[in-house]
Please model this.
Amino acid sequence: MDPLLAARHLPVLADRAVRDAIVAALGSGRRPALPALTREALLRFERAVQLKAPDGVRPALLFAQRDRILRVMRTVCAAEVTARLFRVHRRDLAATGAAARPFDAIVRVRDGSLHAVVWRALPVDGRRLERLRGARAWAKRGHRAGKLAGIVVIDLHTGVARALPVRGHRAGSKAA
Model:
């Protein structure tokens, strides 16, 4: 693969591998250890790279993304909101993975309302606002599991979570 194309595609593949590993662990119902979760993300990344570039990629580019995956996993797993999501009872997970598309997970909170959870790498420039607006637009459309009360966007770079309420949803109302 051309180094310029690889530099463009590898971060996307790495973010997707991290997100998919976290969502798979969340759907399993038990909190995995950080080394096991990181190993799973690295395996997913390797498979994605092999599918995208069967002729290979420069080792330096691969090692840079592997190091980035390690940093991201430490950051995201250390975040309080991720730790709390791993403690959510299985009955309170309305959907994960493909069943929760376009989100990563749908979680039922104490008041019975549904909230979508998304792990994404948010840009540091003006595109961040566009991404957050797009996430809110998805939440307004709802989900087949019921009407969404809000969306939680967890930044893969910083581990910071942003809660975006959905207008038109009354706080405390029962969904589904």
Observations:
- The chain has five helices and five strands.
- The first helix runs from residue 3 to 28.
- Residues 89-165 form one domain.
